[in-house]
Amino acid sequence: MSQIEWDFSTTEQDEDLDPQEPHVYSVSELNGLIRESLEGQFSQIWIKGEISNFKAHSSGHFYFSLKDEKAQINAVMFRGLNSKLKFRPETGMEVLVQGKITVYEPRGNYQVFCQTMEPVGAGALQMAFEQLKKKLASEGLFAPERKKALPALPKHIAIVTSPTGAAIRDMLNVLSRRFKAAKVTVIPALVQGGAAAPSIVEGIQMANRLKDADVLIVGRGGGSMEDLWAFNEESVARAIVASRLPVISAVGHEVDFTIADFVADLRAPTPSAAAELVVKNVTELLSNIQELRRRLLYAQQGRLNEMKQKLQHLTKQLVDPRRRLQESMQRLDELATRLETAGRRQIQFFRQRVGSYQARLRNPKETVTRLRRTLGQLDQKLRYVNTQNMKSARWRLKELMGLLDSLSPLKVVDRGYSILKSKDRVISRTDQVKPGDQITAQVKDGLIELEVKGIRD
Question: Taking CA 110 as the corner, what is the angle to CA 106 and CA 113, rounded to the nearest 5 degrees?
Fold first, then answer.
């Protein structure tokens, strides 16, 4: 404190003045002296406090206050320095800052010029992780319904990772063993360091430009949180969300979780597990295909048998008018055949009788004459019987044909009725049509096109 008083009371300008006359300072001069004194006295200090009234200005600078239970002090952190922070400062957050004390001369306010900042308790990386996780979750980027399903059997697999790490060797070994037919495209990317995040984003975008790619694996092997930090960057997370390809996140070991795991369509505990998840074992696939084929054939045969039974049942119930006509014609042929057979038998019988009579004749001439007369009578009788039988058969045929004709729907039309149809379907109920429908009425001599105006019970 004595150093500050000395600075205020002695200058080169007032060495020759009378000690009885005090030097008068301008406000600017005084603030300048205070700034020089404070910056000289507190050029590098560490301050712990709670952030209050935090404001991120449109210029990119951070303005806030640091406070404890008894006091507070204004603070500023300019854009070039705060852009290096891994986390986002917030009001109420307890932090440890390194900087120097300075004075904002236009207002005479002294403040802390912050050069670095760390959260108290959780590390800066963990704080940044939690903040980004909360932000993306609030946007719904972790929601299951947003995520895309993986293809059952991808033909082309893209992988964004380091081309020299152990992770890519493990994945290629697994893919080669489980499904050699798959095409694999490795897109090299940096997976550690400050340039890793832009490199991964570029790799994801390049994979999405592959026209025949089916799925994308993004990841690397294990490491510390700092080593894996590129997969916690917001740019990488948003590139995964924007991907048209389903994305599998395969970062680190099973206990490692990154922001990429939460936004990806599927998280694999390790890179090798990602390769196992992306393609199923060929033997397993073939077994599943055989089982599905067996079940399909069984279901198809069951359905076919069911349809056959239904067809047989409907066939038994179906009465075809042509079938009745065919049966009548067959019956007529049968009667004609029986009549012809009976006639031949009758003639043969009479011929046998004639022969018997001839053997017994004493006067062959008279016997012949008598028998000829009898034969003529019998022939006449036979012709008569044949004629009557034919008439009876024709009458029966005519009767059956008349019955068949009476059963025909067209006979009803001939009597003055009509048949209403809608698209080749006979209308028998009012619920089969509605106003405005176009229907057809079949009458005796043709068809009449009608439109339904209304329906009454």
Answer: 105
Residue range of the domain that includes 260: 141-280
Q: Are residues 32 and 155 in the same domain?
A: no
End-to-end alpha carbon distance in the chain: 111
Task: For residue 111, give the H/E element and its range.
Answer: strand 109-119
CB-side neighbour CA atoms (13 Å) of 22? 5
Closest to 198 in 3D by CA, of 229, 235, 172: 235
421 has which bridge partners?
A: 426, 440
What would the pLDDT profile of 341-394 be if each residue is shown by its tens digit?
888 888 888 888 887 876 766 666 777 787 888 888 988 888 898 899 998 888
- Asked whether the CA dihedral 5, 6, 10, 11 is positive or negative, the reply is negative
Give domain status of residue 457, yes or no.
no
Q: What is the pLDDT of residues 70-102, one digit of tens each?
A: 888 899 999 888 888 877 888 878 888 888 888
What total number of domains does the chain contain? Answer: 4
314 domain residue, yes or no: no
**Of 249, 280, 311, which closes a domain?**
280
Residues 68 and 70: their CA atoms lie apart, in Å, by 6
CA 222 to chain centre: 34
Structural domain includes residue 312: no
Q: Are 166 and 263 in the same domain?
A: yes
Residues 115, 145, single domain; the answer is no
Residue 85 and residue 27 in one domain: yes
| CA–CA gap between residue 198 and residue 433 (Å, rounded) | 68
Per-residue pLDDT tens digits for 318-335:
666 776 777 778 888 888
Q: Is residue 39 within 8 Å of residue 101, measured between CB atoms?
A: yes
Please tell me the distance from the alpha carbon of residue 143 to that of residue 145, in angstroms, as a whole number. Answer: 6
> Do both 349 and 403 map to the same domain?
yes
Q: In what order do the strands lie in the sheet with 446-451?
A: 419-421, 438-443, 446-451
Phi and psi dihedrals of 396, rounded to 5?
Answer: -65, -40
Residue 49 · residue 32 · CB < 8 Å: no
Closest CA to 272 of 215, 221, 200, 213: 221
Which pTM value belongs to this model?
0.45
